[in-house]
Amino acid sequence: MAEPVYRRVVIKLSGEYLAGEQRSGIDQSTVDRLAGELIAAQKLGTEVAVVVGGGNLVRGLEVSLRGVSRPTGDTMGMLATVMNCLALEAAIERKGALARTLSAFVMPEISELFTRSATHKYLAEGRIVLLGGGTGNPFFTTDTTYCGRRKSGRKRCSRRPMSTASTALIPKKTRPPSDLTA
Question: Which residues lie closer than 8 Å to 152 by C-beta, 6 or more apart?
Answer without folding.
Answer: 116, 119
